[in-house]
Amino acid sequence: MMRIENNRRRKILKSVVTGSSIAAVVNSVPDNWVRPVVETVLIPAHAETTDNTAVEPEAPPQPTRQCCTISALIDGRSQLVVKGDVVYWQHLEHAPPGLHEEQNLPTTLCGNAWYPVWPGACDGGCTSQSVSGLVPEMIAASQTVNLSIVTARENVTILQQPDAGNDYTLIIDFNDSETGGSATYEIEICYLAEPG
User: What's the pLDDT score for residue 5?
Assistant: First the structure.
């Protein structure tokens, strides 16, 4: 009997202690919550060694000045047209570039041999097929292309500088119409090209 009474006392004592603990907690909660005041902040050791420097994004690659040597056998008058990295001949009179007196000589663009394809018999007023990738790609921006003549019997000039009004197209005029026969012309052009 003593043991049953002790168990009963324990249960009563537990409920009193539990009830008073809950009452103590309830009484310690304020009626209105107040924003806590932070007096100290501890930073973990690994956070103190982390570099918080902002990473700058990489600047896009800038255009570079490129030079290209161009040579061709010219008879009469022809114009070399360059837009981006696309090149073609606009032939105006006498034999097309490279074809005088049944020859078949290439136009050399930056050290690359190119044999233009013409639309059949072409004694003036025809356009060759275009080629791409043989010259550095000219940027689509207004600019002044520099021309240096290495070898020319008569005249080589820049007829049209690239700008927005002509869709950034360069035209180089080769004029060998005064003297009979043909001659090899060699020039160097320098311009702003796409990086890469």
Answer: 59
pLDDT less than 70: residues of the chain = 1-36, 38-52, 124
Secondary structure (DSSP) of 111-154 = TEEE----SSS-SSSEEPPPEESSSPPBPSS----EEEEEE-SS
Delimit the domains of the chain by residue range: 64-193
Predicted TM-score of the model (pTM): 0.71
190: how many CB neighbours lie within 10 A of its CB? 15
d(CA 153, CA 186): 10
Helices then strands, counting H and E runs in the chain, come out as: 2, 11
CA distance 57 to 19: 63
List the one residue out of 76, 65, 79 whose CA is nearest residue 101: 76
Burial of 13-45, coded b for 16+ CB within 10 Å and e otherwise, reads eeeeeeeeeeeeeeeeeeeeeeeeeeeeeeeee
